Amino acid sequence: MQAIGLLNSHSLAKLIYQCLMGGGWVGNFVFFTISIWFLLDRKQTLQSNLRRVWILERELLFWSIALFLITIVLRKHDIFTGSLSTQMLALRCFLPLSLNIWWYPTSYALFLVFLPFLNIGMRRLSQRQHCQLACICLLLWGLLGLIPKLSYNLTESTVFVFIYWYILISYYRWHMKPFSTRRCWSLIGIGVGIDFIYLLGSNLLYSATGKAASAQLFIFDKWKLPTMLIGFGMFLLAERTGFRSRAVNVLAASAFGVYLIHFYPPILASWTYYLSVERMFTTAHPILFGLLTIFAVFVACLLMDLIRQGFFKLTFDRHRGRLFDRLWKKLPENSFLR
């Protein structure tokens, strides 16, 4: 996504494109917060969380196989022309979690397995100890993470990202008074402000020296502090509204499917080739074209997953998790999993 032509230009469109590139990690943080928020106050057991992983795996397996077959068709018609190991992809499509086709669900599944034990450990900490741990995390990967080249081993998209977020979210959930609406907007404002300062500074640096072009996207990368501030403020504002809509719930249930479809490696390679940042940015109306591209990809993936939802309701969701429950009951009473 780091198009050379984009980073080398100077325009309002460039600033908007840079901000759009950072939106994905705000979404990741919001999605994780939604997932974990209500689990924090529920009893967590290895059985219940393995059951959640089992149910998650069904959707991953469906899309990994379906998208593998779509990739074969695309390649046959010369639509997908990228490098592809058919044998490896065929193996991966049957083991999507274990072979890490998508980093997010693999990391999230591991996190669910660890969660019962993490909760026990965190609950045994005093509020002061939990606060100290949260502050250390914020110092190392939040504040010091704003300095380029400082990562303190948090360099990859792994389950440890979720453990880091879990420590912070659980402290707020268990020990802090709810933020006011004004403070939530302040979080968003501070996050946007930090992004803007870095964006402006890096663009000015590149304009003056012609160097460090990649630094223009530094602040939008992965789990940066402003990403978390914006995402958490947005979540807290939404969480207190009390809005209920069946239609929204149906669409929201397909949000994960949108991620799986558009981020499946060969599909990602295909649509980012035909709708590359470079091509969009060099059109007569780059801002409009970029927004329309985002909307079109989202709607196309959404419609595909709505079809998947309907299929699951008629098949797998009629007895959701029943096979797992039967297999669990067959485990010996002295099994280490029981």
Task: Describe the 3D structure.
With about 350 residues, this protein is mostly helical. The chain is about 70% helix and about 0% strand. It contains 16 helices and no strands. α4 runs antiparallel to α5. The longest helix has about 30 residues. The radius of gyration is 22 Å and the shape is globular. The relative contact order is 0.14.
Query: In sequence order, what are the helices and strands, one letter per element?
Result: HHHHHHHHHHHHHHHH
What ranges have pLDDT less than 50 throughout 5 or more consecutive residues?
Answer: none
- Global Rg: 22 Å
Helix content: over 70%
Taken from the alpha-carbon principal axes, the silhouette is globular
* N/C terminus separation: 46 Å
**Major sheet:** none
Protein structure class = mainly alpha
* Mean pLDDT level: 87
Number of helices: 16
Beta-strand proportion: under 5%
Number of DSSP strand runs: 0
What's the quick description here?
The chain is mainly α and 338 residues long. The chain is built from 16 helices and no strands. The longest helix has 31 residues, at 46-76.
Summary tags:
globular; single chain; mainly alpha; 338 residues
Topology readout:
Layout: H1 4-7, H2 12-21, H3 23-37, H4 46-76, H5 86-94, H6 103-124, H7 127-143, H8 159-175, H9 181-209, H10 225-239, H11 246-253, H12 255-262, H13 265-274, H14 277-281, H15 286-314, H16 322-329
